[in-house]
Fold this protein.
Amino acid sequence: FAIRPGSLFDRLGLRNGDTLRSINGRALTSPDRALEIYSQVKPADHVELAIQRRGRDLTLRYEIIG
């Protein structure tokens, strides 16, 4: 919640009420798991977010340039 217009999360396409289910196919099951996944995807060249929005499953894909 509290995704503000123009924020990074807004620009990534996330909306208030979205539920993040997984990152690059790795399920988010706990805060500890989220930290583990963050360290695994930090060097990645792409990120794929599986979210649930208003009862529908969506996948958002991003290429990391830099």
Q: What stands out?
A: The chain has a mean pLDDT of 92.
